[in-house]
Amino acid sequence: MSRRLLVVCYFYPPLGGGGVHRVLGFTRHLPRYGWECTVVCAGAEDYWVKDETLVAAVPLATEVIRVPGGSGLSAWLGLARAAGREATGRRSTRTFGMLRRLSDWWLIPDSYVGWAARAARAASQRLARGDIDALLSSSPPDSVHLVALSALRRFPVPWVADFRDPWVGLSFRAPPTAWHRTRQTRLERAVLETADVVSVASRLHAEQIEARSHASGRSRRVVHLPNGFEPEPAVESEPPDDPHFTLVFTGTASQMPDLEVFLEAVHDVLATRSEARRRLRARLVGPYDAGYRDRATALGLNGIVEFLGPRPHGEARMWQRRADGLLLWKPRGEGYRTMVPGKLYEYLDAGRPVLALLDPAEEAAALVRRAGGTVLPPGERTPLAAAIERAYLAWKVGERPRPKRPDWLEDHTRPKLAQRLGELLDGLTRRNP
């Protein structure tokens, strides 16, 4: 007999970007483990990246309740549409940064708090109808957990608070004042102490929560559920006579200073290997801040470094499989040590060499090394240029290494992760009949 999980998230198809795939994977595969899903999510036009192809992955039996508007982002997009500007997957670094700084002052925990108030009403109405056995809220944005807190006051059911990343306002951004920090801390504590289970995407984040729990004397159940990947059947790779040595990055290129380091490293390689201008190509597949493209132009890399913008997820996976090297980096900072990008698992599944700019002590770096990839220090263009040049010269003499897909990756497929979540939910509902 199937039970029903109420899922609260902001990002769900047809919205695109990296934040969609974790929850989509849960809702896609949970039904085979006895859990049908109802999803409360943002409106279909409420993000600057869309991927209509992902809608086909949503099971027909999944109930989707869309709550449009209410967020700072949806308001900005509405104004842009009114001015005749459609979302293109490219945004102004300066404008976006200014809006984010303003939201840090006035909107707590984040600019989605207005949407959360609307979503809480929708979630409460759905809970009032009955047949909901458990609830999962998945962040970012952290406002989704406030939806759960509000709805569960009237309709208590077992609750899993799921974190793709740590609490954003504390880990990735410095609160503008001590008052803001206190307020963010209290909201995070309320979520961590009220949820029946806290699930997280990285082991380091789990350890951090457990350490704080031990220090406070309030035990919490913390479960590590990695981001994982959707397995795909093997396909043919790029034809062997392809004239280009191709480096590929997939995902959102925003707040990533190492992308500029990469552009400078490519410039250095071309300065010493002039013939590589005809042969070396870098393709950045996904939405991006316009400032990076401007930097590539300033370095004379037009036609060599291509910003392809948002592409359907299946096309991004194709570029991964065809690459001669897959590029990995992420924003820098103490808070980002916990981040294990979901694309890393896809990269390893693609069977192509991975070149990562990561702190060697980080969890993501350990996974890259464990799979035979190369980890270089972030922020340093010289070792990166040397690594690119070595790979390019090897390619010129016909070498195309194909790393073996690591055996341990099988435990990170989304069907396996959904099975673990289903077992977790089964245990919670048995304890809370």
TrEMBL record:
An MF annotation (GO) of this entry: glycosyltransferase activity
Pfam families: Glyco_trans_1_4 (PF13692)
Superkingdom: Bacteria
Keywords recorded for this protein, A-Z: Transferase
Alphabetical list of Gene3D superfamilies matching this protein: Glycogen Phosphorylase B (3.40.50.2000)
UniProt keyword annotation of Transferase present: yes
Keyword Transferase included in the entry's annotation: yes
Protein name per UniProt: Glycosyltransferase family 4 protein
Organism: Eiseniibacteriota bacterium
